[in-house]
From TrEMBL:
PROSITE patterns: SH3B. It is a single-pass membrane protein. The chain crosses the membrane at residues 192-213. Residues 20-88 form the SH3b domain. It comes from Marinobacter lipolyticus SM19. Keywords: Membrane, Signal, Transmembrane, Transmembrane helix. Its main location: membrane. It is found in: Membrane. InterPro entries: SH3-like_bac-type, SH3_dom_pro. Residues 1-20 form the signal peptide. Residues 106-137 are annotated as: Disordered. This is SH3 domain-containing protein. GO terms for cellular component: membrane.
Length: 223
């Protein structure tokens, strides 16, 4: 029975040590907390003057008045439980709150700078949008002018084509008139030649007929 009780005590101690190892305690508002080699004031001091707020790793809480801890320097020893706290002291909390406040202020300033940058970029984009809108209107007007010029060019091209067709038609008419004139000239020359031939023939006939029409002189038989 005594052996079983001893085993249970060991299990309780081991479990309490295991739970203690997961904890972190802080030195309370005691300016000079000594770390001793054993759980009592009769043991020698192995590390002195732990400042308040020092975090200590809990190693053993089996003793009623002392807790075994590990200091930030790596020393392992015992300190009085009455000077330990599960939460940081008010000064550390204030310092932490101050650091958080400074971080929040710094973040706020960065946010303000980012907001200022975004606002400037937005204004630049707005100016760019206005400039692009004006440029778009100019391009639309230029496009309308190009379309008008293109329409005029098409009209001019169509008019040129019509004039070329009219010119070709006039050329054809001129060629027809020229051919007709040449035919008339040839016909006129032929008529002149026929008329000349007729006149010559008439002259010949007259030359033959006229002598025949003259009275014949009678021979003077009385001579």
């Amino acid at each position: 029975m005594t052996f079983i009780r001893f085993i249970l005590s060991i299990l309780v101690v081991v479990s309490s040590v295991a739970v203690a190892q997961a904890r972190t305690v802080y030195v309370d508002d005691q300016l000079y907390l000594p770390v001793r080699s054993g759980p009592g004031t009769q043991y020698r001091i192995i590390e002195n003057a732990l400042p308040s707020g020092t975090p200590l790793e809990v190693l053993d809480t089996a003793n009623e008045n002392f807790t075994k801890v590990r200091t930030p320097k790596g020393s392992e020893g015992w300190v009085s439980k009455q000077y330990l706290s599960d939460t940081p002291i008010a000064r550390d909390l204030l310092e932490r709150a101050t650091r958080q406040l400074e971080a929040a202020r710094s973040e706020l300033n960065e946010t303000k700078e980012q907001l200022s940058t975004v606002t400037a970029e937005r204004n630049e984009l707005r100016d760019s949008e206005t400039s692009l809108s004006s440029r778009s209107q100019e391009l639309q007007q230029e496009l309308r002018r190009v379309k008008e010029v293109s329409a005029d060019a098409l009209n001019i091209q169509r008019r040129n084509r019509e004039l070329l067709e009219e010119n070709q038609k006039l050329r054809n008419d001129l060629e027809v008139l020229t051919a007709e004139n040449e035919r008339l000239e040839a016909s006129k020359e032929s008529d002149f030649m026929l008329l000349g031939a007729a006149l010559v023939l008439g002259g010949v006939l007259l030359a033959l007929i006229i002598p025949m029409l003259k009275p014949t002189r009678k021979t003077d038989n009385w001579a």
